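Q: Please design a sequence for this.
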């Protein structure tokens, strides 16, 4: 999952970036509202974290501009202000949730995960597909109740596909959602990770879990419900 973090407090910015990367997110940074507006329009993010008190363009104006540009990724507002009017202003501008400073990074991550799930139409942290069970809270994947060990990059790719079952995602889209803006979009890294996922998740191609559509991309096939409730 790829996030946009717009925060002018550089110490907090780096602290949050490190924490989010430990949670397997890729994070692009902006230190003012104008830079945040540029990145928000330029890249397709899964969610954004925007501070209200930004230089050049404040957070409320930034959110308003993004929504007026028909950019609909979830937005979590950060504010050091306790007045309820500021929180209402953020929500009215198009934010989906808010968090008042100071806060625990764990709460921010939990709120982000909930926003991303809801934007994909998933209310629960558990995503089931046939015998597969992905837990977005514990970052674990099980098949028939048996845990499958995935690397950080493998998990991020599989989670993104599982959040969009049946949807074809091109290599470019997958790369953009998994890596920051400096990553080489011409790399064949997605093909490598797809091969690894198939080997780990469905080595005998019993379920046809990850499909390749030649010239288009990849998708997770929606599988029949499994009676296995373990994992």
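A: Design:
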């Amino acid at each position: 999952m790829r996030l946009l973090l717009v925060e002018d407090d550089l110490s907090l910015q780096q602290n949050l970036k490190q924490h989010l990367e430990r949670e397997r997110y890729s994070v692009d940074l902006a230190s003012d509202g104008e830079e945040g507006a540029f990145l928000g329009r330029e890249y397709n993010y899964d969610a954004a974290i925007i501070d209200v008190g930004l230089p050049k363009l404040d957070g409320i104006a930034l959110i308003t501009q993004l929504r007026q540009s028909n950019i609909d990724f979830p937005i979590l507002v950060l504010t050091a202000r306790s007045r309820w009017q500021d929180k209402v202003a953020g929500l009215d501008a198009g934010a989906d949730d808010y968090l008042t400073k100071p806060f625990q990074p764990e709460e921010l991550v939990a709120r982000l995960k909930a926003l991303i799930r809801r934007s994909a139409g998933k209310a629960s942290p558990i995503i089931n597909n046939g015998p597969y069970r992905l837990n977005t809270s514990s970052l674990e994947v099980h098949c028939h109740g048996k845990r499958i060990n995935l690397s950080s990059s493998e998990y991020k790719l599989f989670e993104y596909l599982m959040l969009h079952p049946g949807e074809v995602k091109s290599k470019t889209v997958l790369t953009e959602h998994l890596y920051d803006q400096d990553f080489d979009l011409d790399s064949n890294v997605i093909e490598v990770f797809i091969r690894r996922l198939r080997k780990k998740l469905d080595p005998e191609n019993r379920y046809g879990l990850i499909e390749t559509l030649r010239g288009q991309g990849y998708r997770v096939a929606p599988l029949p419900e499994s009676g296995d409730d373990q994992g």
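Q: Thanks. Anything notable?
A: The chain has a mean pLDDT of 89. The longest helix spans residues 105-119.
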